[in-house]
Amino acid sequence: MASNASRPxxxxxxTYLEHSxxxxxxxxxxxxxRAYVESVRAAGGNxxxxxxxxxxxAETIDWLDGLVLSGGADIDPARYGQxxxxxxxxxxxxxxxxxxxxxxxxxxxxxxxxxxxxxMQVLNVARGGTLHQHTPEQVGTTxxxxxxxxxxxxxxxIRPGTALAAxxxxxxxxxxxxxxxxxxxxxxxxxVATASDGTVEAVELAGHPFAxxxxxxxxxxxxxTRLFAALVAAASQRRGDR
Length: 242
Known about the structure:
Layout: E1 10-14, E2 16-22, E3 25-31, H1 34-42, E4 46-50, H2 58-61, E5 66-69, H3 93-109, E6 113-116, H4 118-126, E7 131-132, H5 136-139, E8 152-158, H6 163-168, E9 171-176, E10 181-182, E11 189-194, E12 200-205, E13 211-214, H7 226-241
Parallel strand pairs: 1-4, 1-5, 5-6, 6-13
Antiparallel strand pairs: 2-3, 7-10, 8-9, 8-11, 11-12, 12-13
Helix pairs in contact: 3-4
């Protein structure tokens, strides 16, 4: 029988709950961009999809080796003590509940995780931070979300000496699609990358073996799987240690 360390690590990925059409059906469905699964697979992990319905606590996810918090809908502003901006999307309480529980569980377990776009915002709010509900009002451009279903390109300046710099270097072009961004940074989080307009583009959680949030969408660049490879490596280490 293969040892624990020799098996591909299992990486849970959070999903959307949306009205969808597929095959002959049009119904509520749990869905996810295939690019996330392909990125985990290319990095050497096995992806499992975590629906935004369920009991997600440390006791129920300790079989995972790593976690990806995917992008998606706006967080309910009530979570960080604000009223909705006119551009803020309709709250999705089931997904918010699930992902805030997963962040708490991942922190308790020291489970390696990568928080992407909305995922980084969930991490920030879960740590007591707040969001700019409409980033164009802060920076004066729509560069971070140029059009519906279109990714913008943003150059990230990465702080030297950080875990992110060890993975990507001190500068990288990233694909982004977001109209919200971090305002007050949550407890224990350090800003490790910014865009030229000052937008927070990445954070790391102090004291955690691998807890990285990025505002961009690394899963959209099939030619650069370094972030997913780093997550899978941390997940493999965790599996080997158990």
